[in-house]
Amino acid sequence: MDAQPIRLPSPLATLGALFQQRLRSMQRDSTVTKIVDALVFIGMLLALSLSAMALDAMGLHYERPGGSLLGKIHPATYVILLALLVQLGVSPAPWRRINSIIARQNGSLWFCLTGGLLVAQIVLVQHLPFSPVIDTFLLPIALSILLINADAAQLRRLELLFHVMFAANAMLALFENITGHRLTPYVAGTYVVTHDWRATALFGHPLVNGVLTGTYIILMSFGRLGAMKPALRPFAMALQMAALVAFGARAATTLLVPFLLVAAWGGGRSLLQGRRFPAGVWLATLMLVVMTMVATGFIGYLGYFNRFAERFVNDNGSASARLSLLHIMAAVPWAQLWLAPDQQIVKGLEVLDGSRYGLESLWISFFLTYGILVSLVFFAGLAAFCLDIIRHARKASWLVFIYFFLVATTSVSLSAKTTEFALVVAMVLVFQRPRYQASTSLA
Questions:
Q1: CB–CB of 308/248 below 8 Å?
Q2: Which residues sit opposite 191 in a β-bridge?
Q3: Does 116 reside within a domain?
Q4: 8 located within any domain
Q5: Is 317 left (phi over 0), alpha (psi -120 to 50) or beta?
Q6: Which residues contact 258 (CB under 8 A, 6 or more apart)?
Q7: What is the pLDDT of residues 197-231, one digit of tens each?
Q8: What is the tally of structural domains in the chain?
Q9: Residues 243 and 170 sit within 8 Å (Cβ to Cβ)
Q10: Entry pTM
């Protein structure tokens, strides 16, 4: 019986097979990209629309005692982590993908390592709940990985989402401030606050609203926006400035002034150097100036600014509560303060000092909760992460982080469970387009 000749595939058939394989791979990658982009959009929508107060009002026990661990984590965190798992899980070489992420985001790696040290301190040493760390620090890391590599179309969609949600938040704040009716109850722990006139709107606590609104205004001043026409920018910024009054955000408003002066100086210098602005921008600015003068006089006559101005004179003990933190630090035993303060002692000192506002300082609150040693190591990782974000964004992004941490110094901020840092990181990466995507940016 004659042997059958071996048939070698022709070069044309080999190229055809490779082309079909590549086509199927591209179709799979395109589908995965769409799924990941959709999940990121949904996650950002949840983060912008569901505050801690809204989740508590829905009965999830997000900040209140009791309930399951699953209810202690924000829904946006679940969606964003799912998007990251989908992106990594379908990769043909997931470990190679992780190595590329580490090479691209060295600061995020150090932040993860210091975050692991913080979790070990919380769980193994102090036996405290670790759920606040997930929303406050894990969510920003996941968002940075997803957004640094996002394409221009996805960034444009997210930018539009931010514009819509911040406009809705500002208008709701004005409505709450004028009418006295809130979308969700103002809750502090288990206590329903009824004496505070400040609006809570979509983002929840007035201080969270203040720092996020101020961050948005800075990004509007320095960012290259693609989803908003230049003529609309002055009106959008004026709406947010009015909302700052409704939130009663003293620190966020006061610290915003020098940043706006820097932006104005930069714009004036560009004008003197011969840069031309569209006629619509000039017309919109002129209309805004006239409208602002008329509206300010009218609402000032109605007393809209009275309560906000009164907070600079009488803050009901808020400033003295921040000063009392130094007394509490001095009363905590030195060995505990360095390693792991006893929270029962700290709570008892708060009661004795008459503090009604808690540990109203990010840095001191960290020291009094986790100890100075672990806190300093963690802050080093946090700084590395912020520098990592700045490195992948435009140069004005460092102003955002300076403003954020200055305002955070006057409040609990990152020492408690919050999504505000994740939103700030997302806004920086969306408004301050990543540098290596500048050529494809729609800005």
A1: yes
A2: 188
A3: yes
A4: no
A5: left
A6: none
A7: 888 999 988 889 999 999 999 998 886 666 677 77
A8: 1
A9: yes
A10: 0.83
